[in-house]
Design goal:
Blueprint (H helix, E strand, L loop, with lengths): L1 H4 L15 H7 L8 E5 L1 H13 L7 E5 L3
Parallel strand pairs: 1-2
Length: 69
Amino acid sequence: MLSAARGLLGRSDDAHDPLAPRSLLTLVPDLVEHDVYLCGPPGMSDATRAALLRAGVPAGRVHSECFSF
């Protein structure tokens, strides 16, 4: 699984935040040069979108689709 290989999975009380802007930029150093596609529940998508914007990804490069159960 890609997320496990990249260290994106962990306990919810883990001190490492994989969605922190610095973590995102460490994982993908040229992140701001890419389009990012998100799909997930609204809370996760909103948090990820906010982190991407704080990391410097232009809003026009963040594309998302939300769903809920």
